[in-house]
TrEMBL record:
<protein>
    <submittedName>
        <fullName>RagB/SusD family nutrient uptake outer membrane protein</fullName>
    </submittedName>
</protein>
<dbReference type="InterPro" id="IPR011990">
    <property type="entry name" value="TPR-like_helical_dom_sf"/>
</dbReference>
<keyword id="KW-0732">Signal</keyword>
<feature type="domain" description="RagB/SusD">
    <location>
        <begin position="318"/>
        <end position="420"/>
    </location>
</feature>
<dbReference type="InterPro" id="IPR012944">
    <property type="entry name" value="SusD_RagB_dom"/>
</dbReference>
<comment type="similarity">
    <text>Belongs to the SusD family.</text>
</comment>
<keyword id="KW-0998">Cell outer membrane</keyword>
<dbReference type="Pfam" id="PF07980">
    <property type="entry name" value="SusD_RagB"/>
</dbReference>
<keyword id="KW-0472">Membrane</keyword>
């Protein structure tokens, strides 16, 4: 515990120090800016680059300003996973209401947008300078670890907005969100190439927070996820097959740096809770009463309101949140096979999820039900895959993308894409028009 607390305190100082460095170095003067030398010195040190990359993980995963809190919250409300507990939380109220109520003032969306772009910007600097390090094995680790956070941030933008910035900077141009996924995949491919050329040093792995993120498995998992989203099914299959489903990859928390969903929702019962015991699914897709995943994710709190409360990966302040789930990889393969008319193979992969027992899953997540026998049409099989993605990946922040990809009725969602935050629109003339819905 002492080691974890020490790391958490380091995360605070590294994040603060990075913010200070880039704030100072943004000043433009006619004479030599002494902070510029500090910036260059920091970015040429392997330990400083390691520290900065650790700070990016903190930005992504800790506090109410993090991607973790904001993407789970935004996605959860507009896809009917979550129930609002207090209308005094105005940003969450907007998302819970949906439609045109959600606008550019929403601080949940502004937080997700700002955090993602900051991580991408800082990650690019870290990766660029890590390439120059003499210790190639540490450089490989820094690049690969930082790329995990960069790819996640690119993906979060592409999942929630129609267009994403092509670069990070003043008056950045925008590209279609599918290009955002391709940028994430390209960055992952580059990082994987580094790790194949120069293996990640053990010294680097000991420096990152409790070695909680399995770097190579996570890179392959993200490549599989985003390849599926752009319709590159063969690449999705290949990447998902590279992921060791027995390895854990999580954002770790403790008493110093607690789980943000637990801190602001579970423990307070003030912001949100799960919508219902059906995980917010329409009646035709209700989970089976014997599906053990439901009581993994929720607990029945009757008679005390609300009737359903958060459990799963957000049950305590120390609950780790997975970067990806083994079941996601199986469902990626099932969907990729189904969309390429290999229905028998799709059903095999889907049944691996349905029959998986809690003891057979590294996180204890399993439906433990009999397998399906079929036969099913492609449409029927895809509907079943969607249903089990909604259950297996509950409150993961991925459901809105799934709803689009599976052509779910708009009546099942409260937004399709999000409006661009005013923090971007007010400072970038290239910001696109907001989507109608």
């Amino acid at each position: 515990m002492k080691k974890n607390n020490s790391i958490c305190m380091r995360l605070f100082y590294y994040g603060y120090g990075l913010a200070l460095i880039f704030t100072l170095s943004s000043c433009t003067k006619d004479y030599i800016d002494p902070s510029r030398a500090l910036n260059e010195e920091a970015l040429s040190s392997s330990q400083a680059l390691t520290d900065i990359s650790i700070g990016l993980q903190r930005t992504y995963s800790y506090l109410r300003t993090s991607n973790i809190y904001n993407k789970v919250t935004a996605n959860g409300f507009v896809t009917n996973e979550l129930l609002l507990r207090n209308e005094g939380n105005i940003p969450e109220l907007q998302l819970s209401t949906g439609g045109s109520t959600v606008d550019g003032t929403n601080t949940v969306l502004a937080g997700l947008w700002t955090s993602s772009n900051k991580i991408i910007y800082d990650a690019n600097l870290v990766i660029q300078n890590a390439r120059k390090l003499a210790d190639k094995n540490r450089a490989s680790g820094i690049i690969a670890y930082t790329t995990v956070l960069k790819a996640l941030s690119l993906g979060d933008l592409a999942m929630n907005w129609e267009q994403v910035p092509a670069t990070v900077g003043r008056n950045a141009s925008f590209v279609d969100r599918m290009e955002g996924y391709r940028m994430a995949i390209s960055s992952v491919d580059s990082a994987l190439l580094f790790t194949e050329t120069d293996s990640i040093s053990n010294a680097f792995l000991q420096d990152i927070p409790a070695a909680s993120i399995d770097i190579k498995n996570t890179l392959y998992a993200l490549k599989a996820r985003y390849s599926l989203y752009i319709g590159d099914y063969e690449e999705a299959l290949s990447a998902a097959s590279q992921v060791d489903l027995k390895k854990v990859s999580v954002f770790a928390y403790d008493n110093v740096s607690p789980n943000p969903i637990y801190t602001f929702a579970t423990s307070t019962n003030n912001v949100f809770q799960p919508k219902d015991e059906h995980l917010g699914l329409p009646e035709a897709l209700y989970p089976d009463p014997n599906d053990q995943r439901v009581l993994f994710y929720i607990e029945n709190a009757n008679p005390a309101p609300p009737a359903v409360r958060i459990k799963g990966f957000w049950f305590t302040n120390e609950s780790p949140i997975p970067v990806y789930l083994p079941g996601e990889m199986l469902l990626i393969k099932a969907e990729a096979y189904a969309r390429t008319s290999r229905l028998d193979l799709a059903l095999i992969e889907l049944n691996k999820v349905i029959t998986k027992r809690p003891n057979d899953d590294v996180y204890g997540l399993g439906a433990a039900m009999p397998g399906l026998t079929g036969p099913y049409s492609e449409e029927e099989l895809l509907t079943l895959i969607y249903k089990h993605r909604c259950i297996e990946l509950f409150m993961s922040g991925l459901k809105l993308e799934d709803m689009r990809r599976f052509n779910r009725p708009q009546t099942e969602m409260k937004r399709n894409f999000f409006p661009y935050p005013f923090v971007e629109r007010d400072n970038n003339a290239n910001t696109p028009a907001d989507p109608a819905f």
